[in-house]
Amino acid sequence: DIDKTIIDAKYKNDGGELSRNVYGYPAINWVYELFRPDEPYSARGVHPSGNGIARYIKLSQLSGSEKDYLINQSLLATLNYLSPAFYGFSSIPLGKSGFSGNFTIHHYFTSFGTDTPVELMIKKDAFNFIFTYHNYMNYENYFFSIEGEIIDYPVKFAGLNLLFSPRVMIGMQPKDQCFMTDTPELFGLLGLRTDISVSKNFYIFCDLTAKTAGWAAGNDSLDKNISIAIGVSMRY
């Protein structure tokens, strides 16, 4: 019983407003908020301690249709286990062509519902391709986008060893990120990551991404956005 073993236990062992989790059981809160986008946060009521808001949603607070949606998404989450890489097969030779490949299927919670992308990975010599079909779903309809990416293409320039990873995505998502709409909205993304070798195993990288309004895994913004990430990576 999730309500008793997780939610009630969180309320019982509450250490004060500053120590509380944002969510009690994230999947339940996610469904609750998808179906109630305009409900004020204060409508959840007062925390049992009398201090703050009762932020942890119980399974018993969901309607029948909301519980059905949660169950369906929990079943779709098992698609994550279909990738051969999950079972130790990192690369599958494609005959005598010199190509090798693999595939993965993921299941993401999104701002408007879910994304269930199918990724096809193809390798030939220095080329590492990823082709992705994004299957976006809200409560009313299906939307899609296609994505292509080259990973770590090596280039030598001015005595530097560089790795380039360009990325492009184009397709449709629900208009205004709404859960209850069947109206599509154009979504696009361009990205380029450049890694510069500073030693055999260490790289400095700069990752530039520009996108329209919409959801993309790993990007913090739902608005039209240009972002730059700079950091250090290790390769073994």
Walk me through what this model shows.
With 236 residues, the chain is mostly beta strands. It is built from 3 helices and 12 strands. Strands 1, 2, 3, 4, 5, 6, 7, 8, 9, 10, 11 and 12 form a 12-stranded antiparallel β-sheet that branches. Strand 1 and strand 2 form a beta hairpin. Helix 2 crosses helix 3. The model has no long low-confidence stretch (mean pLDDT 92).
Using only C-alpha atoms, the radius of gyration works out to 22 Å
What's the helical proportion of residues? 10-25%
Q: What is the number of beta strands?
A: 12
**Dominant shape:** elongated
Oligomer: single chain
Order of helices and strands: HHHEEEEEEEEEEEE
Strand coverage percent: 35-45%
Calculate the terminal CA-CA distance, rounded to whole Å.
Answer: 44 Å
Low-confidence sequence ranges: none
Features of the shown structure:
236 residues, twelve-stranded antiparallel β-sheet
Any chance you could write out the topology, listing elements then pairs?
Layout: H1 2-12, H2 26-35, H3 64-76, E1 92-93, E2 100-105, E3 108-109, E4 114-115, E5 118-124, E6 127-137, E7 142-150, E8 153-157, E9 160-174, E10 184-197, E11 202-211, E12 225-234
